[in-house]
Amino acid sequence: MDEELQLNVPLLRRRVPNLTTAAREAGLRAATVSNLCTGKIPVGRAEVRTLVALASLAGCSLDELIIRGSGVRMIETGVKALDLLAPVVRGGTVGFVARPNMGQLVMLAELMLRMKKRGFATVFWDPQSDISGVELVQEQSEFSHSAKEDVYQQIVQLRGEKDILLGVDRSKVLSGELLSLRDRLKEVGARPITIALVDIKCEAADDDNAYGPLDTLWRFDTDLISRGIYPAIDPIGSTSTVLEGAHLDAVHLTTQQAARKLLRRYRELRSLVTVLGAEKISDSDLQLYQRGERLEAYLAQPFYVSEPYTKKPGEWLTLYDTLADVKRILDGEMDAAEPSELFFKGRLEFTS
């Protein structure tokens, strides 16, 4: 829709200081360019040649010149469990809820690395803590600052050209500094800022409102940790506002709902199987249990930042590939495979 397209005015004005003169020399009407910059003319109604000429003047691509989507949209991370069950909302806030030693800082470091691969600018608001894992996040972030003013200036410098992922500790929420930063950034236009909130002291694992309103919630699961299944994202307790309404396409939403339903039933059955044995449940429940096992194993995935420890290369799966694989598991196409054949790997086709 037209209203979901915006001109990246800060980028344009920074790269073309004398925009009116430059536009006129390029054969464009100065009034048209001015109206595009102020929003009087919607970007979606501009002539293609005008937008191409502006991109040429700025020395950028059309993707850089035009900001698409003020509505709710997901960001693909290439992490199967996240993209399927609790997608990151572009320009939203994702909160990590975990107990000690559950991998939340590894997850943040991995997210920083993956978003860099996608062309995001990554900024870490360093809480200056000696807690293990903080240094890994620092290493994977392009920019790391401890002072709020430095974080603000860095974002202002970057925001005209790139989407930004900002990693923040819960201490900045409690102190009010994050709210203050957000208020100042409202005055700075251009591309969205997606915020990832962690709780490095793990003080809010039982708090239902640890960070205030969130667009995405990732709960880390003790049971998955105990069985060495990573990323240990609770498939039932983790969620995202992008799952609400019509923000996902029908295939994603249908697959996500079916996968969550299967994993919920699998978890119920797992308790029975542990106590009574698989022979004590019905054939139909046994089939659901075994498919749930396979899906849980499939959603385990090697991370790039963990390669030195796992000795396995990190895996990136497109959302399309993830949905196709999950559907194969749900439809029973993988019923002959052992869960171990699906565990901690990439696409299903590589397990045969």
Automatic annotation (TrEMBL):
Its main location: membrane. GO terms for molecular function: ATP binding; proton-transporting ATP synthase activity, rotational mechanism. It is found in: Membrane. Residues 248-321 form the ATP synthase A/B type C-terminal domain. One of its GO terms (cellular component) is proton-transporting ATP synthase complex. The keyword Ribonucleoprotein does not apply. The keyword ATP-binding applies. Coiled coil: none annotated. InterPro entries: ATP-synt_VA_C, ATPase_a/bsu_AS, ATPase_alpha/beta_chains, ATPase_F1/V1_b/a_C, P-loop_NTPase. Keywords: ATP synthesis, ATP-binding, CF(1), Ion transport, Membrane, Nucleotide-binding, Translocase, Transport. Belongs to the ATPase alpha/beta chains family. This is ATP synthase A/B type C-terminal domain-containing protein. It comes from Paenibacillus rhizosphaerae.
